[in-house]
Amino acid sequence: MSHHKKAPIAIITLVLLLAAGGVFAYLTWNKQRAEQPPAATQTETCRTVEEKTECAQDYIGLTEEEGMERAKTAGFSYRTVERDGKSQPRTMDFSETRLNFSVTDNRITKVEFY
């Protein structure tokens, strides 16, 4: 076999080895990820009054939009009950997993569960 034919074979072999290594790495990573238990949502970790008070503090200072996104990701429902000192219309039903935001200048200043 000539020297010119050995170079393409070496390149093809290298590419196949790299591809096989990539597939192995992906399968190993995917298996490890599947074996990990899912992370608890905040609705599962914020049950007591003390835990809820601590969870609520995470929202203080966020923009209203950031707070809504965080609440949604954490598994909470949410609503803005006060904006710039003015009470907003709301229902009187109770939900222990609902965050109620008070917002001033588009920043959350107070959070309560009810």
Which features would summarize this protein structure in a list?
alpha+beta; 50% helix; 114 residues; Trypsin Inhibitor V, Chain A; four-stranded mixed sheet
Describe it:
With 114 residues, the chain is of the alpha+beta class. It folds into 2 domains: 1-36; 42-113, Trypsin Inhibitor V, subunit A (Trypsin Inhibitor V, Chain A, 2-Layer Sandwich). It is built from 4 helices and 4 strands; from the N terminus they run ααααββββ. The chain has a 4-stranded mixed β-sheet. Strand 3 and strand 4 form a beta hairpin. The longest helix has 33 residues, at 3-35. The chain starts with a helix and ends with a strand. The mean pLDDT is 81.
Report the CATH C-level class of the largest domain.
Alpha Beta
- What percent of residues adopt helix (DSSP H or I)? 40-55%
CATH topology of the largest domain: Trypsin Inhibitor V, Chain A
Helix-strand sequence: HHHHEEEE
Identify the overall geometry. elongated
- The chain-level mean pLDDT equals 81
CATH superfamily of the largest domain: Trypsin Inhibitor V, subunit A
What gap, in angstroms, lies between the N and C termini? 80 Å
The tally of beta strands, per DSSP, is 4
Secondary-structure map:
Blueprint: H1 3-35, H2 42-45, H3 49-57, H4 64-74, E1 77-83, E2 86-87, E3 98-104, E4 107-113
Parallel strand pairs: 1-3
Antiparallel strand pairs: 1-2, 3-4
